[in-house]
Amino acid sequence: ILAWLSPLEPRLRHQDVQSHRVDDVGKWLLQTPEFKSWQNSSLDGGLGNPVLFCYGDPGVGKTFISSLVVDTLCDQARDQNTAVTCFYFDFAARKEQSVTSMLGSLLKQAVSGMETIPEEISKAFREQKKVIGGRAPQLPEIVKMLQTITSSQCTYICIDALDECAVAHRAKLLNSLKQILDKSPGTRVFVTGRPHIQAEIEKRLSGRVRSLSIGPSKGNLIIYLRVRLDEHETPDAMDDSLEKEILDKIPENMSEMYVGAIALEIPNLAIR
Q1: Which of 96, 162, 176, 251 sits 20 to 30 Å CA-CA off 50?
Q2: Which residues 6+ apart lie within 8 Å of 227 measured at CB?
């Protein structure tokens, strides 16, 4: 039944991102009033903005922050009637990442943590198996089942890189999320993406969104760079003076992506 809900496996992408994440980088977000309010608002009877949109330019670490948020919520959800779901959009996988498959993967994650699969889902599975050798669930069915599941337990939905979702699909996805939130006020949605989709999100989820800018902090970048340098195959290529020079000259607006590139260039810098 779980495979029928969606062929996608976001947990594999999450595990990959998690394995490359540097400890302490991005934890500043968890301490912001915006995140704390969003995280705890489901416990306050559904008060507050259910959607937190974190936006930033390419390379500032949005995907790493998404994985950090997912793990933080998972730790919080232990021994509670809470489901944590996630999805990572990828421009290269647009064809596979349809709205139905994406939402189906969220439903699959929420259901997999239950002791038994709800009868509504089992019944839909049996009925669809009777026709044309087994028909995949349709979007209205998925949305309805998500409404039922999220209404019965506190649910967090974390979506990374929404800007990499096809424009036509994005509108359909946001409308579906609105339907879910209408029926399940305790559901909380965390979204990351580039700044240009902020207006669209706020329009389609009117009155429900709080936005927060993600930017590289010099402290986080230094932590990231030190770790990457320490992991490099030739750590002896850089002496103390070169390390100090590099760390002193990191500009405030440099992204983690660029810092990683510098880390790879350290041996060449030392040779020069």
Answers
A1: 96
A2: 22, 23
Give the CATH architecture of domain 1-213: 3-Layer(aba) Sandwich (3.40)
Which positions ≥6 away from 207 have C-beta within 8 Å?
Answer: none
DSSP 259-270: HHHHHHHHHHHH
* Element spanning 218, H or E: helix 218-231
DSSP state of 221: H
Q: For the segment 125-161, what is each residue's pLDDT rounded down to a tens digit? A: 999 888 776 788 999 999 999 999 999 889 999 999 9
Per-residue DSSP letter, 235: G
User: Which pLDDT score is estimated for 269?
Assistant: 45
Six-digit token string for 72: 């933080």
Q: Could you give the 3-state DSSP secondary structure of residue 50?
A: coil
The tokens for 68 are 């950090």
Angle at 96 between CA 136 and CA 6, to 5 degrees: 35
**Nearest CA-CA partner of 108 in 140, 72, 137, 67:** 137
Q: Where in the chain is the domain with CATH 3.40.50.300?
A: 1-213
